[in-house]
Amino acid sequence: MDRFDYVVVGGGSAGCVVAARLSEDGDVGVAVLEAGSRQIPPQVAHDIAVPWRMALVQNTVVDWAYESVPQPHLLGRRIREPRGRLPGGTSNLYYMMYIRGHRSDYDNWAYNGCPGWSYDDVLPYFQKFEDQEDDTSPLAGKGGPLRVASVARHEPNPTSQAFINACLELGFPPCDDFNGPYMEGAGWHHVNIKDGKRHSMEAAYLSPALERKNLSLIDGAQATRLLFDGRRCTGVEYDRNGTLERIGATREVVVCAGAIDSPKLLLLSGIGNGDRLAALGIPVLVDLPGVGENFHNHVLIPVVCVASKPIPTPRNNMSEVALFYKSEPGWPGPDMQMGFVHGDPNQASSSQPPNVMVMLPGVVRPLSRGWVRLASADPLAKPLINPNYLAVDADYRRLTDAVRLARKIYATRAFAEWVQTEVAPGTTFPDDRLGDYVRQAADSYHHQAGSCRMGEDSMAVVDPHLRVRGIESLRVADASVMPAVPSGNCHAGIVMIAEKTADLIKAAHRS
Question: In whole angstroms, how far apart are CA 490 and each of 181, 257, 440, 478, 486?
Fold first, then answer.
């Protein structure tokens, strides 16, 4: 059995960062286990690289292609939950919008049992990895490994400008930078695009780090369970081409498998709700009831209009602008995001793509909570996934009101030259029936989080140093540790968590 100082499970957004940063110390050996292959079909690789083809990567060989259990508050529908299965993980699938989240998101983490994770604490880590090309925010980082480009500088679509003008017409303020001192308002996105191509975490972190002799990437290796000596984690068992293999860790194992697969791996390893594990015949190592609980996600819904004249061909990621706003004044920060897409990303490869505009209102401070659980003791079986969308009435009400707002935005003078007719919800759903449309069409925002929650109470899975409670030499570092998902696209927060984790690990082993 090969042994390394550190074994990182998952070569996705967080795992790339943790592995790259730990391998900066030339005296340690680091291995990354990645279930996906580094050999990507040429067409898929092309679709990954070209920003406006982002939706075409879903349901391919590089997507786990998960789906939820039937959602009781969405008419029993199963919702697709795509996750990346290749080096770089879901940073190869996401829509590249770079949003840190609101200051209050992180302050709330700290106030609820995660000291050291307030906004002031984590800001230096955001700045550490950012390489922002413009000066729209005094808080932006420069010279880091991840490119943060301004869409406004790269030939944005005229419909995106119309969206901003429409929001201003309705009285919403402008926002120069959603990651600046003030997040609320309408403005241009910053995106993880470099030289016209997606800047994935594999490109930003992992590929450069693999030039070091002390970092190894083991791809096609799906972790099946963690290995222990008593309650000390000593390595990982994994399936590679149908053969079970083992790898040892002399210092720590860091699980970075994401909000779906990190709790799954802990459960397979006997860490979780003892009664449920026993029912599946899995020996209980630590009865930790919070594993897989608190799972949640942002939820959105499409509002689609046919354009009255041809929309220019996309040049960026098709999602160049947004509006962040409060559903009512009492929220400490925006709880709603109104996205806008000029075209149908799912039809980007069509010779005649539909000439449509899509508004995407979303609840970015959801109150609904669900879970991730094992379907069986088979480590290769997909887990049961329940985001429990719209279980809390406030989420349902806010999303329904947001569809009404999307209609008002389309009805402004600023959009008059572009809007021909609404096709979804359409005339079938007047304003007083929009709640029915919400139940029929609400969907995942693909920002899964919270299933190995950080904290200091009995339902917390990891402590504020991201160490798994009751276990030695084991940490989790990814979106699963978020007590509550940030109020915006969450990739930036995942990278921040990984940067901070690497520093926590280095400090723990500093002689």
Answer: 18, 15, 25, 11, 6
Nearest CA among 398, 413, 419, 396 for reference residue 340 = 419
Q: Which residues are catalytic?
A: 447
Amino acid occupying residue 203: A
Spatial separation of the C-alpha atoms in residues 403 and 437, rounded to whole Å: 9
How many Å apart are CA 494 and CA 482, to the nearest integer?
9
Express each pLDDT in 335-364 by its tens digit: 999 999 999 999 988 888 899 999 999 999
Dig out the tokens for 18 from the structure.
């943790």
Rounded Cα distance, 367 and 297, in Å: 9
Q: Which two tokens stand for residue 261?
A: 């697969």
172 exposure class (CB count in 10 Å sphere: 0-12, 13-18, 19+): buried
**Closest to 130 (Cα-Cα) out of 194, 55, 62:** 194
Residue for token pair 């190995």: 452
- Reference 493, options 193, 174, 91; nearest CA is 91
3-state secondary structure 194-232: ECCEECCHHHHHHHHHCCCCCEEEEECCEEEEEEEECCE
d(CA 184, CA 332): 11
- Judged by phi (left if over 0) then psi (alpha if -120 to 50, else beta), residue 15 lies in alpha
Q: Among residues 460, 504, 452, which one has the least CA distance to residue 478?
A: 452
| Structure confidence by residue, pLDDT tens digits, 148-194 | 999 999 999 999 999 999 999 999 999 999 999 999 999 999 999 99
Q: At residue 137, what are phi and psi to the nearest 5 degrees?
A: -135, 135
Residues 287, 466, 381, 7, CA torsion sign: negative
Instruction: Tell me: pLDDT of 78 over 80.
Output: yes
pTM: 0.98
Maximum Cα interatomic distance, the chain, rounded to a whole number of Å? 69
